[in-house]
Every structure is written in C-alpha cells, then in structure tokens.
Specification:
The complex is a heterodimer of chains A (195) and B (200). Chain A is mostly helical and 195 residues long. Chain A has ten helices and no strands. The N and C termini of chain B lie far apart (85 Å). The chains are: A mainly alpha (195), B mainly alpha (200).
Chain lengths: 195, 200
C-alpha cells in the first residue's frame, strides 16, 4: 500500500511531468492565461491521462506483446488514445451537457499531447502493472493539474505587474515557469526519504 | 511484418467503425452560426485568444462575449472575413492582454479648459472634486468612484473618464462569472417582481 502512495507522491512532486520532465508544455503555456480555462484543462487532462494509461496497457499486453510487434508501440498508442478519447468526447457531449461544458472542449485538444503519450511510453519502460499504470497516469495528471492551476493563478496576477517592456508576454511567462521548475527541484529525494 | 500490418489494419478498421457509429449515434445539433465562424478560424488550437481552442472562441464570438480580433494566427485576413460574415466593423488585430485590464474608471478634469464653475463639485456624491469658484478644479483620484455624475453638468465638457491602470497594489481576484442565459435571468426577474409586489 505504501508503495502505491509513494508512487503517487513521486509522480506528483518529485517527477512532476511539466516542471521536471518538461512534458506537456504546450497546454501549460498556452491555456494558462485564465484560471477558469486552466482548471478545465487540468480536469480534462486528468481524465485523459488516466484513461490513456489504462488503454495503452491493455493494447501493449494483449496486442503488441503476443504478436511481437513492440516496435510499432508509439503509433499504436497514438491510434488507440486518440480513438478512445474521441469516442468518450462524443459520448459525453450527447449524454451529459454539463460535464461537456467543463471537459468537452479540451478533450480533442489533448489527445495527442506529449504528456499523454509520455505517460503511456514510460509505463511500458518502467514495466508497471495494470493498476500501477493507472495510478502513475493519475498521479502525473494530478501533478500537471497542480502546476497548471498554480501557474495560471500567478499569470493572472502577473498581467497587472510592472514588467519591463522586453520581458512582457511570453518571456516573463517562461521565466516564471523556470523559477517554478527550480522550486520543484526542491522535492528531489523526497520519495527516497519516505521509503 | 505481416502480423504488424494485419494487426494495424484490424485495429484501425475497428476504431474507424466505432467512431463512425458513434458520430451517428451521439450526433448533437449545433448552431450554424458557430459552425460558420469555426470554419473560418485557422484550427491551430493554440489558445492565444485565451479560449481553450478554436471552437470555444467561435462560441464566444457567436455569443457576443469576445471581440473578433483576438486570433494572431488568423491575422488581418481573418478579422476581415469575420467582419464580413457577422456584418460588424473591421477592427485592428489586438493584443488581448488589454481585456484583462477592464477595471474601474476615474474622472479627470482637463485643467486647461476648466472655467471654475463649481457645477461638478455640487454633482459629486463623494466630494472627490476640489476647487473654488473661478479657480481651476481637480479630482482626487483615490476618492473618485467613477460614477460619471460630474460629466453631464460640466458646461465646457472638460471632464474625461479614464480607466485606472491595474497595478499589483489594486489587483483583486476577478468576481466569478456565472453564465446565466436570458431565460433563466427572465425567470429570476419575474419572481423578484412578484416578491416585491407582495411585500409592498
């Protein structure tokens, strides 16, 4: 049990996907101007990452490994994740307009996001089991959401700050992200300490 | 090799069929206006308009909540074609950061034209205007509430309302925005009227 807890802590803080592994930077910079949008994006990513780590595990173990076509892993994962997420989006759109308002518009955007594919590939690399894969995906997504919401909150306030002309807009955003990344490096070794 | 090709053909066919079926079964009617706007947008889904993608931006334009000039990848051409489609004025491509600064406004007296008539001092509900008869007046910025009551009485139109630049000192979290559609708003309004009528 503590092993699972450790896995969760380590993916959220120590190996944070955005700030330590530098995956999923496009939504991180792109849709963090407003807190509302960032929250929606974070929720949708949580959903997609969990779903994609489950489906990619199944594809890897029941299609790729028995047929010995592991070299087609990347393309297979992209195909499966895109299809599953698109299907879910259509279903949510029809069955629950409320949920669609929160998640729907983000889902097709993140289907082939690098964080999504990264989780799927890392799951295979580290040889996680089914439950561990889902937990890893979920933890990565919680880490992403945390960073996303923090960054959007900072940026909303940053819009009012007196920033020198040459740093205005994207540059100050990137500098802020860099500082956050340094801050997150402080978590290094936390997962070993808990062991 | 052959196993790979066959497996992929099978997988792709399967997902193609499922998605095709889902598109028919889960079809949702959408407004043609939004579709038309969406078709003009570049579909880069970059989020530079501060919406989550092209379609959400198209919805916001259709609902009148967003300007047509927020899409840098589309450029001036897009603004032009959107203006044609929606029959509105062409506006220059803007930096949407300005939208974030919509805050309070204050009155400022253009001192060169002020004749010192004291009419605005009498109109001000918060005593934010200083001055005496035949002397130039001025507005105490920190006291001004931006109510605009001083603007109509001025005989020489020397009072201007200007937005307060947002700084870290006066920054606040924005008020949460609830999307209430017209029908809901109407219902609430009529209920309120009934309640008021019964109580008076």
């Amino acid at each position: 049990m503590s092993e699972y807890f450790l896995l969760l802590i380590s993916t959220i803080f120590v190996n944070n996907f955005v700030l330590v592994k530098f995956l999923g930077l496009c939504p991180f910079m792109g849709s963090s101007r407003k807190l509302e949008v960032a929250t929606g994006m974070a929720l949708a990513t949580t959903f997609v990452l969990t779903l994609s780590s489950a489906s990619s595990y199944l594809v890897n173990h029941y299609i790729l490994l028995p047929l010995e076509i592991e070299y087609l892993r990347t393309i297979a994962f992209i195909l499966v994740i895109a299809a599953v997420v698109n299907f879910t989006e259509m279903m949510v759109h029809k069955t629950s307009p409320m949920l669609y308002q929160v998640l729907g518009m983000f889902l097709p955007l993140i289907t082939t996001n690098c964080a999504v594919l990264g989780v799927a590939l890392l799951n295979v690399q580290t040889d996680y089991g089914f439950f561990e894969s889902i937990l890893f995906g979920f933890g990565a997504a919680i880490g992403f959401s945390l960073v996303m919401i923090l960054f959007a909150s900072i940026r909303e306030r940053l819009a009012a700050a007196d920033v020198p002309d040459i740093f205005q807009g994207a540059p100050i955003g990137l500098i802020t992200a860099g500082l956050m990344s340094i801050a997150f490096l402080g978590f290094t070794g936390l997962d070993k300490g808990l062991n | 090799m052959l196993a790979g090709i066959l497996a992929f053909v099978a997988l792709a066919t399967f997902f193609g069929l499922v998605l095709g079926l889902a598109a028919v079964v889960f079809k949702v009617e959408s407004s043609p206006v939004i579709d038309q706007i969406d078709a003009l947008l570049p579909q880069t889904q970059c989020g530079q308009c501060s919406f989550a993608g092209c379609r959400p931006y198209a919805e916001a334009i259709a609902a009148g909540e967003a300007q047509i000039n927020l899409c840098p990848p589309g450029g001036e051409n897009l603004v032009q074609s959107l203006a044609d489609l929606l029959d509105v004025e062409v506006i220059p491509l803007g930096d949407n950061d300005d939208d974030l600064f919509q805050g309070p406004i204050v009155a400022v007296i253009i001192e060169d034209t002020c004749i010192g008539c004291t009419l605005c001092i009498q109109a001000c509900p918060v005593d934010a205007i200083l001055g005496a008869a035949k002397q130039m007046h001025t507005v105490i910025e920190s006291e001004c509430t931006g109510c605009e009551l001083c603007v109509p009485p001025c005989p020489v139109d020397c009072i201007e309302m200007i937005p307060v630049k947002q700084t870290l000192k006066n920054w606040r979290w924005p008020v949460p925005q609830y999307s209430v559609n017209n029908k809901q708003a109407e219902t609430i309004f009529t209920t309120l009227k009934h309640v008021l009528a019964e109580n008076t």
